[in-house]
Design brief:
Shape: rod-shaped
Helix content: 55-70%
Number of helices: 16
Structural class: alpha+beta
Distance between the termini: 89 Å
Oligomer: single chain
Strand order of the largest sheet: 3-2-1-6-5-4
Length: 535
């Protein structure tokens, strides 16, 4: 009992308002009974009189005021509840005295008021309400025996009713306590569940993989933003087969019993994707579809490989370059002896391969150096004109070899040295594979005004890149040139990415056709470049 009395208690204003509304209805029924008396009034000995009208009127006023106060001024809960209960006890005890005591049955109405008050009241106050009700009923009955010739045996009945008041109050309070504990537990679990849902939703939204919840009929129930981006789905969902036919067919095949729960497909922008299916334990049998960006995974693997290679090269660069320097110096000394053509050819082979090894070491070392792109707005007509003069002078070619098509006023956001290095690599490769005749290499600048981008097209009149090599041209150390390092195109693409742009090979081009893309409307924030090589 002591723990029950000291339990944590929170005022419940909504339940108290329902209790006040019940009392208002009870008072209204009592008033109607006085205004329209009948046989049951005679049996209860409650006849219309100034005293009964006064009691019922005061009761109605107190209940109406209590209901209004409980709705508008939700403070001092215990005081408001105690006042209302005391009014019930006094009015019902007075009506019991008028109606002939406990034999009228009005004492049972007080049980309802005590039960309702005990459900929302505090432990010690509940016992106080029961004690006040018991004293009021016993006092009314004793006065009735003394003043109104009530049956003396009715005192025993009054005692039983008083004991019932205590039992009702205690049981109702225990029930209310359990209800409040369960309500608080449900509230806390609801808060925890809501927090967990929010966390899960944020995790799913921020995942690097796409997630779909699909019915067995192929209808998309839910998806995260990454799934929309990878597959090009509409925000409203829809049918999987309609928006991703390859994935829809693979899902149907998997549902039919295929053991293959992984499939490769092309997504938005021809991105290479991988899909994985997993069943759920839901009653509707929905399927989870995980979409992975295979291209991103390959890129990460490549970056890891390059990072490991950079660390290895940095550790052995000194050991490699010292012997290279010694070999190069010795070949220069031997060249001074002039012993014949064969001797000269062998020395030339030594010199060329020594220079090639030195270039490879330099380029690989530069891959690991994190340098920041200093992005600026570059006027393309002036920049490309000066660039063509430098490159043609270096190659000893006439000015007509490179044709420039650059609209006036066109600009690109790029690091000046990076753009020079990218074009030096691209145009140099184009010259190497071209006929070196008039306009053998064309550099065209095109504005994509609707998107705020500008594109530089480097086109040669050579045979182009074979179809079987298109997927490998940007791989590090891939080259078809005997003296190449295989890092030029890879470094050029990395520099474009570092400047917020891109370098691509045009699909199905009859000749070599590379495209450098960059912003033209606003310069992006510079990012750290993972590749910076000497030209």
């Amino acid at each position: 009992m002591q723990g029950w009395l000291n339990d944590t208690w929170v005022p419940n204003w909504r339940s108290f308002q329902y209790f006040a509304l019940y009392r208002l209805l009870l008072g209204s029924l009592a008033l109607l009974a006085l205004l329209f008396p009948g046989d049951w009034n005679l049996r209860l000995n409650i006849l219309p009189s100034p005293l009964t009208f006064m009691l019922v009127g005061l009761y109605l006023l107190s209940t109406a005021g209590g209901l209004l106060l409980a709705r508008l001024w939700q403070q001092h809960f215990n005081f408001q509840l105690s006042f209302q209960v005391v009014v019930d006890i006094l009015v019902l005890a007075a009506l019991m005295f008028i109606a002939g005591g406990v034999s009228s049955g009005l004492g049972l109405i007080l049980l309802i008021s005590l039960a309702a008050a005990s459900l929302v009241g505090q432990g010690r106050l509940v016992l106080l309400y029961a004690a006040l009700a018991a004293m009021a009923v016993l006092a009314s009955q004793v006065l009735g025996v003394i003043l109104s010739s009530f049956d003396q045996s009715s005192l025993v009945q009054a005692g039983f009713i008083s004991a019932g008041y205590f039992a009702t109050a205690i049981l109702a309070r225990l029930l209310g306590q359990r209800v409040m504990v369960n309500e608080d537990l449900a509230r806390r679990r609801g808060i925890a569940l809501n927090n967990q849902i929010r966390i899960n939703q944020r995790v799913v939204e921020r995942m690097q993989d796409g997630v779909l919840i699909v019915t067995r009929d192929g209808e998309i129930v839910r998806h995260n933003p990454m799934a929309v981006r990878l597959l090009g789905l509409p925000a409203s969902g829809g049918n999987l087969a309609a928006h991703a036919p390859t994935l829809g067919a693979a899902l149907a095949h998997w549902l039919a019993g295929s053991s293959n729960d992984n499939v490769l497909l092309s997504g938005a922008g021809n991105a290479e994707l991988g899909a994985r299916f997993e069943s759920t334990a839901s009653s509707d049998g929905e399927v989870l579809v995980f979409i992975e960006d295979v291209g991103r995974i390959k890129e990460q693997a490549k970056q890891l490989k390059l990072a490991a290679l950079g660390r290895l090269t940095a550790s052995i660069a000194h050991e490699i370059r010292n012997p290279l320097s010694a070999i190069s110096h010795a070949s220069e000394l031997l060249r001074e002896e002039r012993r014949g053509d064969l001797y000269e050819r062998l020395l030339r082979i030594i010199g060329d391969n020594t220079a090639r090894l030195d270039r490879i070491v330099s380029d690989v070392l530069e891959l690991g150096r994190q340098k920041q792109a200093q992005v600026e707005t570059i006027a393309l007509r002036e920049f490309l004109g000066n660039f063509a003069i430098d490159l043609l002078g270096n190659e000893n070619l006439p000015a007509s070899t490179i044709a420039l098509e650059v609209p006036a006023g066109l600009a690109i956001c790029f690091d000046r040295s990076h753009l020079h290095q990218v074009l030096w690599n691209l145009v140099g490769n184009a010259l190497r594979h071209s006929t070196r005749g008039v306009a053998a290499v064309r550099v065209e600048a095109v504005s994509v005004a609707a998107q705020g981008w500008v594109e530089l097209h480097v086109i040669d009149d050579g045979p182009g890149v074979p179809a079987e090599l298109r997927d490998q041209v940007f791989e590090p150390f891939f080259t078809t040139h005997t003296l190449g390092t295989g890092l030029g195109l890879f470094i050029a693409r990395e520099l474009c990415v570092a400047n917020g742009g891109a370098l691509t090979l045009k699909a199905d081009a009859a000749s070599g056709h590379f495209i450098v893309s960059g912003r033209s409307d606003s310069c992006p924030l510079p990012v750290v470049s993972g590749a910076r090589a000497a030209s």
